[in-house]
Amino acid sequence: MVTVLSIDGGGIRGIIPGTILAHLESKLQELDGPNARIADYFDVIAGTSTGGLITAMLAAPGSDNRPVFAARNITSFYLEHSPKIFPESRRNNFVGTITNLVAGPKYDGKYLKTLVQELLGSVTVSQTLTNVGKANVSKNALLSDVCLGTSAAPSYLPPHYFETQDSDGKKRSFDLVDGGVAANNPTLMAITHISKEILLGKFELVDMQPMDSNRMLVLSLGTGLAQLEEKYNAGDAAKWGLLGWVYNNGATPLLDIYGDASSDMVDIHVSTLFQSLRNEQNYLRIQEDRLAGDASSLDISTTKNMQTLMQIGDSLLKKPVSRVNLETGRPEPVQGEGTNEQALARFAKLLSDERKLRVGS
């Protein structure tokens, strides 16, 4: 069975999946000992934007070739560094914000760039601890460059440029903005990547057919959705010009709408794939869809809001497992499958058993 972890984009709201991953890793440690880490159990980890940063923390090797971060360190990372990545002086400066709408991003990204480069150093994509395509040398970039590219949210942080070089000295340039522009929920991208590798004969971990959800175990973690039907309405939006769509009461409606919509669409597609083959329990999506106020923002990094996001992550564990109703397109609680906490415990057992099976063989 191929195992997949996917983590959505969402700025400061990465605290939510960080809280859930800490719980999952604790369950794995109960089964396999204190040294168990998330990267030991997933063949593919996909992350967009803030999810990409979390992915790097989980999969980047330290000097002992073990993950630099344990999952329990993720939330403390956000608590320590987010106020410097998204400084309040920049966030609450209305004149500066209006100026940036026409002259530059809301934040200069300098602190984030220095932080990521210091943490990840010279680690490249091919050195990560999960399965990564290593054949294309031109894509074997520094992991820090990939993180800065996938987190460069338009209007929030500057785009990121870098180059790679193949064995013949030929250079390839990359001009990147936030991955959420294309795939805020990268679950489908991860599944497609696996299927593509199978078709090309490069995926050797599991003998399976492309898009065979019977042989996949997929955990998809959201960063929460705003109550858009309450946050925005057609009457107000009809009065917006260009600036209104990119700045409204401290938020960016355009980013909110396409980011949340793309995440939901991926959930519908993946849910359909698994439900069509009657193996829906192999796909677990954990998402909060009722965020409001500061908790729905991408960049409000006050201590109060970050504590709220941690509480939201904890409360999600107690909520019932939800699954998309294919008729309505909306997630609904599933009778008889317990809470997200219980589902994660079941996933932890399946992941542990799969790893032991491979080690034993």
Automatic annotation (TrEMBL):
Top-level enzyme category: hydrolase
Membrane keyword on record: no
GO molecular function: monoacylglycerol lipase activity; phospholipase activity
Keywords: Hydrolase, Lipid degradation, Lipid metabolism
Record's keyword annotation contains Lyase: no
Chain span(s) of sequence motif GXGXXG: 9-14
Annotated catalytic residues: 49, 178
Residue numbers covered by motif DGA/G: 178-180
Signal sequence extent: none
One GO process term, biological-process aspect: lipid catabolic process
Residue ranges of the motif GXSXG: 47-51
Domain PNPLA: 5-191
EC numbers: 3.1.1.-
Entry note about domains: The nitrogen atoms of the two glycine residues in the GGXR motif define the oxyanion hole, and stabilize the oxyanion that forms during the nucleophilic attack by the catalytic serine during substrate cleavage.
Family that this chain belongs to: Belongs to the patatin family.
PANTHER family: PATATIN, XYLOSE ISOMERASE
Free-text function comment from the UniProt entry: Lipolytic acyl hydrolase (LAH).
Protein's UniProt name: Patatin
Species annotation: Sesamum angolense
